[in-house]
Amino acid sequence: METSGHGFRDNTLIVVFGASGDLAKKKTYPALFGLYRNGYLPKGVHIVGYARTKMDQEEYHKRTTSYIKNPNNDSEVAATIEEFKKISSYVSGNYDDSPSFQNLARHMEAIEKSYQSRGINRLFYLALPPSVFVPVAKHVKECCYATNGINRIIVEKPFGKDLDSCRELLSSLKESWKEEETYRIDHYLGKEMVKNLLVLRFANVAMGAAWDKHSISNVQISFKEPFGTEGRGGYFDEFGIIRDILQNHLLQVLSILTMERPVSFASEDIRDEKVKVLRAIPPIKREDVVLGQYVGANGKPGYLDDDTVPKDSVCPTFAATTLWIHNERWEGVPFILKAGKALNEAKVEIRMQFKDVTQGIFKDISRNELVIRIQPSEAVYLKLNTKTPGYAFRALPTEMDLTYKKRFTDTKIPEAYEALILDAIKGDHSNFVRDDELDVAWKIFTPILHWIDGKEGPRPKPSPYPYGSRGPKELDSFIEKLGYKRSTGED
Asked: Annotated catalytic residue: which of 187, 249, 326, 450?
């Protein structure tokens, strides 16, 4: 099931912009190290870090390896970290002036002089805030673009704040970079269980037969975090939970879950089907939304207690939205996307609840559910009914459980960023977001975002919910009216 694309095999430079930032040290560099350690980076690769921060090579290496895990102080891992440092160097400069990028270009050219063949490959990773995407992309194209090789650029979310700002950003980036050179990263598309959806759906007749409105009553895609903004409320208050999680991560999961079978595993065939199903979803209505904001409880502070948050903020830290897909397969099935901070647990999962069994011989029997746990502890389990063991003839709900840690004991599941950087190196766009996909995603969410932002009348006030709870009290009635039936002991 390999997809086609021109893979970088040698003569490759990877440039990480924002190398001194949190994203780079917590995600990008540990992912690059994971690929290096497992032999997946191109032969003779060199990594160049670039940021405004003035620091020497020693400080740079200290920062970029600080989040690489070696819990048992394994000497082999420690030696590999030292090797990894040797293939990485740092250049400091501004993000908005040509001389800084010309200096970076000279540094890159000095490294590339050792290459045996003429063709060179350059992968630029923008681990940067969106405010500098456009100037950096423009200067890279003008000063650092390889004319005798292949260039690719990876851009992090958020891609705008609404439909208009997204279109403006896309248009500005396209002035410098072609669509086939651009890799818009949403790290949820690199998660093992999200990538597994295509196989679960299309490689199993038993799954495919029940994957439609005739069998499924409702679907929930949930994201739960057990902590609040932790001093980062100022950034969060600007974007909110819908832009942060629902409009990108959960909508991406929804599109793969509901798309039609692609003609092949070629990246454009997969992305064509994702766009097709997203186009069948109308903009979300206000009555299909529940908003919440956590308040202090259990010794934990509330959202408004965060010093970085405006004291009168009505920014939601929890949102549940219902999406409807108007096509032959899914007409009438509610898709409930929910995400929240400061909840009772850490969990991301898909829960597909099937319709009631025909009444008559069975009464008040539990519904079947297919649950796909994306994180933590990846799993797929099917809730079904079986006879109680023994003399009695009663139906008992139980589970067929595929928990990855139990079934694949010797397998290490790669981090999402590792998988996606490797895809970019291979030239595989399958798990990256295409421009028209972004456009249609923002069309779905922009009307309610403008309502929440106060652009269409007074801003709605989110319902308070205690830190460490399941969310606003309205949530249960919201999902029950959509046909969801709660099983005993479920949270």
From this structure: 249
